[in-house]
Each structure stands twice: as C-alpha cells, then as structure tokens.
Amino acid sequence: MPVVVVYMWKGVSDNAKKRIIGGITRVFVEIGIPAEAVEVVIEEVPKENWGIGGEQASEKLKHAEVP
Amino acid sequence: MPVVVVYMWKGVSDNAKKRIIGGITRVFVEIGIPAEAVEVVIEEVPKENWGIGGEQASEKLKHAEVP
Amino acid sequence: MPVVVVYMWKGVSDNAKKRIIGGITRVFVEIGIPAEAVEVVIEEVPKENWGIGGEQASEKLKHAEVP
Amino acid sequence: MPVVVVYMWKGVSDNAKKRIIGGITRVFVEIGIPAEAVEVVIEEVPKENWGIGGEQASEKLKHAEVP
Amino acid sequence: MPVVVVYMWKGVSDNAKKRIIGGITRVFVEIGIPAEAVEVVIEEVPKENWGIGGEQASEKLKHAEVP
Amino acid sequence: MPVVVVYMWKGVSDNAKKRIIGGITRVFVEIGIPAEAVEVVIEEVPKENWGIGGEQASEKLKHAEVP
C-alpha cells in the first residue's frame, strides 16, 4: 500500500520511467509511508489507443512528444 | 473527467478504435460533458491473458473474432 | 469482453448511469459485439479525490456539476 | 495524459490528498508534461478489502495508520 | 508483485472477502510467488453502477445475491 | 461479475496463465458464483515499468524470476 497505476503514451524513455517511479515513491515517503510499501505500475498505451476529445491522440496530438 | 478504460482482446482494427473512442465520447457529450474532458484508454489484452469461465479465451473462444 | 471501467466524479444521477451503460454498450454492439458480452463498471470518485492540474477538483472546479 | 490511479487504504486526510495530487503532478511537470494534462484519481479502499500476504490488512496491519 | 484488483458488486460479506483474499493469494503461492508479495484489492461497486447487456445489474439481475 | 485484473511482470508462461485463470475462477465458484460469470484479465508489465521501493524491478529485483 499504496499501489499506483500510471497510464501514459507508449515510448517513455528509461530515464523518465526512473524519475516517475522515484518521484511518485518520494511523494508517499514524505507523508509517512515506507518506500518499500509503494508499488508503481506504468502502463504504456499506444497513441492510437488513447482518445481525447473523441479522437485518437495519434491524430489529434500527432506532434506531441512522449517524455 | 471522465476517464474510461476499455479492456478488450488484442487485435482491434484502427477503424474500430476510432469508433470506440468517438462513440464513448459522444455518450458523455450527450449528458452534458465537454468532449475535451473525456479520455478513453483502450487496453488490448492477448486472448491468452483473458480468462472466461476458468479458461483462456484463446482456447475457449478460439474462433471469436476481434472487431 | 469488453470490460469498461468509467472513472467519474461522485454524484452521478440514476438517469445518467442508465445512459452511460446503455450508450457504451451500443457502441460495442455497433462494431459487432453481442450486448450480453459488455460489462460496464462506473467508479464514482469524490471530487476531493480527483486531481487535475495539481489541485483537487473540489477546489479547482468547485462549481462544475456532475451529470 | 497521464492518468494516475492511486489505490490506498480508506481514511486519507484532506491534507494528504492535496500532497499526493500536488506531488504526483509535479513529478510529471518535471519531465516536461503540462500540469493541466495530469489527472490523478485516489481510490480509497477499506482495509477489510485489502489483502496482503493472504490476510485482510484490517487484521494483519491493524495498527498501521493511514496518512 | 502481483497486484490483483477485483471488481464485484457491493455487499460482499466479511467471510467472502477473507476467502477471496486467501484463495487468490494461494493461487500465486502455488506457482512459486511468496504470499507476502501478493496484494489483493476488492473494489465493491453498487449494482446501480454495474452494467451488463446495456442495463444496470440492479434492474437486470435484481434477485442475484452477493456472496 | 466479478472482473479480476491481475498486474504481473511480463513473461508469464502459458502454464502459469492457465493456473492463474483457473485458480482465481475456482475461488469465486467456491463462494457461489457461476464460473461463466468470472472474467480474469492478466496485464503483463515489463519489469522496467514496475517500481518497488522507488526503483525499477528490472534493477532492484534483477534476478527474480517470472513464474
């Protein structure tokens, strides 16, 4: 406890994954939860499978970059 | 708001993805939510990883097609 | 198949729930999936528990209404 | 994008919710994502409904406190 | 690892929760995972919020009982 | 009802998938739910995308095996 599921576009760099996992864990450590108790799961979702405003992100946000 | 996560078998066509994203967004627009606020995430799951009635869909529903 | 999980703010009317469940199911029926195979789960989340732009929706979007 | 779902034990204080939402959003801002694009959903789960090591957290971790 | 999220209708008895948590954990222990690594989260969803075949379970399956 | 989502590290053998799906379904059958009503979804997550104690499982638990 806690378990954190992160839905993001596919293509996240290894460095960004490290920062997401480390950063989210620290948020919980700062409110008193032991780091070992924090599990973070990053679900990478292809932009074709992500809809926003009724359109695929692969079309609507074609030029948006993944961190 | 809202966020909609759709779990389906893997292999959904691009046309079906468009219709799922567009159609689900419209459902919320019709009850008064702005389209821009609707996020849809399609999680494609291999049939081997989907159980129904205690068996893998890849065996139990071998001939069922993905839209 | 499919399973659809909808995250929304708490306080959705019964009428809106019916329209969400009926409308999402129809989207899948229209791409060839039998209605009986569609499961929709509405997770109502208190606005205090929903963050957008780093703030609770209960503060940032205090006057936004739930359908 | 991203959408972050946090599963925690029920009873989180309003202050902790603010810090979780603010802190997680900052993690993504620091890797280049606009704050407005980050949605965080906190799912509070009663300790009776949370299992760890095969037992309910309400029994196994009776004295553990929620932040 | 693993994290198991169970979506069920609201009203699950404490005894059923114990059996679900214990039983699911054992499934993973039997394939070689330590019990301590297994987290199970039971999300109880009101029947009004659960759609099947396009209708609320509270109407369509009015007489179905929760274990 | 129920729907069970299992998050695990990627690389689960077909035999383990069968045992997870069959075993979890049996847990619900034993509390009175028909097997046909149980859906199990296994989400395989690369160890690089799984954080525990603030680190990627691919580093922290490099030698841990997937069942």
Descriptive account of the structure:
Chains A, B, C, D, E, F: This is 4-oxalocrotonate tautomerase. Chains A, B, C, D, E, F: InterPro entries: 4-OT, 4-OT-like_dom, Tautomerase/MIF_sf. The structure is a homohexamer of 67-residue chains. By secondary structure, the first copy, chain A, is of the alpha+beta class. Chain A has a single domain (3-60), classed as Macrophage Migration Inhibitory Factor (2-Layer Sandwich). Chain A contains two helices and four strands; from the N terminus they run βαβββα. The first copy, chain A, has helices spanning 14-29, 57-60, and strands at residues 3-9, 39-45, 50-52, 55-56. In chain A, the strands form two sheets. In chain A, strands 1-2 form a two-stranded parallel sheet. Chain A has a two-stranded antiparallel sheet with strand order 3-4. In chain A, β1 (3-9), α1 (14-29) and β2 form a beta-alpha-beta unit. The longest helix of chain A is centred in the first third of the chain and has 16 residues, at 14-29. Chain A is elongated and about 40 Å long. The two termini of chain A are 27 Å apart. The relative contact order of chain A is 0.26. The mean pLDDT of chain A is 96. At the A-D interface, β1 and α1 of A face β1 and α1 of D. β1 (3-9) of chain A pairs antiparallel with β1 (3-9) of chain D.
